Amino acid sequence: MVRSTLLVLALLAAAIAATTYFGVTVGTVTSDSMNPTLTTGDAFVLVDGELEVGDIVTFRQQTDDGTRLVTHRVVGTTASGAYVTRGDANPSTDQAAGAPPVTSENVVGVVPSVGGNPLVVPAAGGLARLSSDVRVPLLGLVLLALGYDAVASGRPSPTRVPHVTYGQALAVIFLLGTIGGVVGVVAVGASNEVVYTATEAESAEGPLVPVERVVEREVTLEAVRPAYSYRFVDATGAAVAGASTDSTVTTVTLRVGPLQSTGPHAVGLQTDNVPTTLPRPVAAALYDLHPMAAITASVAAVTVPIYLLSRFLLPVEVPISWIINARSDAR
Q1: Distance of CA 241 to CAs 210, 215, 255, 285, 298, Å?
Q2: Which one has a higher pLDDT value, 13 or 216?
Q3: Which residues pair with 83 in a beta bridge?
Q4: Average pLDDT over the chain, rounded to whole?
Q5: CB count, 10 Å around CB of 144?
Q6: Which residue spans traverse the membrane (predicted)?
Q7: Are 33 and 155 in contact (CB under 8 A)?
Q8: Whole-prediction pTM value?
Q9: What is the rounded CA–CA span in Å between residue 179 and residue 184?
Q10: Is 261 exposed, middle or buried (0-12, 13-18, 19+ CB in 10 A)?
Q11: Are residues 193 and 116 in the same domain?
Q12: Per-residue pLDDT tens for 112-169?
């Protein structure tokens, strides 16, 4: 049993190492610019490869706030060999909107196709986001387990079941339950992206914003909010000035600017549905600290009391091996 478990962990370590070190990356769709080919919340695979017109690629695009990742389709090339890109749902190319042509140095990867369709996992963006957060710690734990097995393999095999108490088993069960709860909450979150274009015009509205001024823009996000959950929105590239929500729609007021130069400016929006196990002010303060802090604390607010109550009611000091060994001796 232990050996088979460690074999699974070894395969998991190999998969994690492959995604980290061998040019395979998992991305998440954060806007509707590639509808209907890629929809918000989907996950997709990126690999290294030669680009051709018609390929979907992820590339780095320079903005006022630094560099952002964009996933669009290659629709042409320039005389210098750079690429012209456009989102399938956009009326014009990125370059017509003011973005520079995409060079090979800025390309992160290409989305492979199977049977003419891009390799996409629908609605798996939340899991992809979680895996990117825990990839390195998880790889470390897997390698630690494999190292322990290598050291223990030289010891004599025990003839009895190891001394494991009910309390230790409960700790493992509720730890796994907490991790599963966090994974479930993250998976129902959603990522979106809004692109504003900075302009010299003083009366800019909608997707246009005047340079060197702070303006407010409203964004409507459609998402299902599970029962007994708070909805929080985090923004990058802008400040969240306010948000109102119901069961299906969240209206977010963004404070954008001041932008220093004309051109595209991306605002990323992350929406999370956090269980209502903590008072909203507490959950909001933790979410401002980090979204994962609010999610983990809210899930732990359920699992930890159940764990403590179980330790109080069950004989936590009794070894499970007593029962298993007694049954083995009776045969």
Answers
A1: 18, 11, 6, 16, 24
A2: 216
A3: 77, 102
A4: 75
A5: 11
A6: 134-152, 164-190, 289-309
A7: no
A8: 0.53
A9: 9
A10: exposed
A11: no
A12: 887 777 878 775 555 555 544 444 444 454 455 555 455 445 544 444 445 567 677 7
- How many C-beta atoms surround the C-beta of residue 100 within 10 A? 13
**Residue 159 to residues 27, 145, 169, 331, Cα–Cα distance (Å):** 48, 22, 20, 15
CA distances for 34 relative to 31, 263, 318, angstroms: 8, 20, 58
pLDDT at residue 185 greater than cutoff 50: yes
How many domains would you assign to the chain?
2
In a domain, 179, yes or no: no
Please answer whether residues 49 and 33 qualify as being in contact, where contact means their C-beta atoms are separated by less than 8 angstroms: no
198 and 115 in a single domain? The answer is no
Last residue of a domain, one of 90, 121, 152: 121
Domain boundary, last residue among 253, 276, 299: 276
Which one-letter DSSP state was computed for residue 96? T
pLDDT at 6 over 80: no
AA letter at 253: T
CA angle centred on 219, ends 31 and 268, rounded to 5° = 45
Whether residue 265 lies inside any domain: the answer is: yes
Count the residues in the chain.
331
Quote the domain boundaries for residue 31: 2-121
